[in-house]
Amino acid sequence: MAEPRFRGIKPVTGRPGVLRARVGDYRVLFKIDETRRVVIVGRVAPRDRVYKRLSDLRFD
Fold first, then answer.
1. Cα(14)–Cα(25) distance, integer angstroms
2. Which CATH code for domain 10-55?
């Protein structure tokens, strides 16, 4: 299995378990479910908009 945590991944402040990754001009917000061995993507957006309305971000 490939490692889902590549270089440059950081936690999102104030959102336990949510990680962020930079991909060019975009940010990807995601969680890693170790039990099911899957990556759950919550949002992909340009850097200046990805953190707006962070309270609406859901992973279900």
1. 23
2. 3.30.2310.20
